[in-house]
Amino acid sequence: MVVENDALLINRLQKNDHNAFRELADRYTERLRMAAGKILGDHTQAADVVQETFLAFFRTAGSFRGQSGIFTYLYRITVNKAIDIIRKKNREKKFYFLPQAREEHTDVSIVVREALGRLPDNQRLPLIMAEIDRLSYEKIAAELALPVNTVRTRIFRARKKLYNILLQMGVTL
Description:
Layout (H helix, E strand, L loop, with lengths): L1 H13 L3 H23 L2 H18 L9 H23 L6 H6 L3 H10 L3 H11 L5 H8 L3 H21 L5
């Protein structure tokens, strides 16, 4: 039912119906804000990311092909924007990742977020959905329109790659 309603909303959006945009934002803002908040650890930044997500979507709604569900599409934009913020912060604070600074740096979440940002999108998104959002493989598969075994494989590979990235960053596990 939601997918059908989403399809109607997308159709209305593509016809520049601003009420449809408001309905879409009302439907998904809170879920997206929570996802961004879990990644960023800052609810103010999360709200900004969600706002940027909807602006980006609104600008490109005419090109939305519907290959995935609308929530999945918005979720991907949100996660990517949140990770971009983390990358930008880490570029600005690159000294934290020098070996001597790493020993003194106790906020592991920043290092983990940076490592997550280095994962390929097709591995990062399922891993975040599983580990941060605590979704089951079945729910992730449904959201991403993938077979459950593909989701399992991507999460397995993401964990393995994340482990190696963290080791390269000097994190002892």
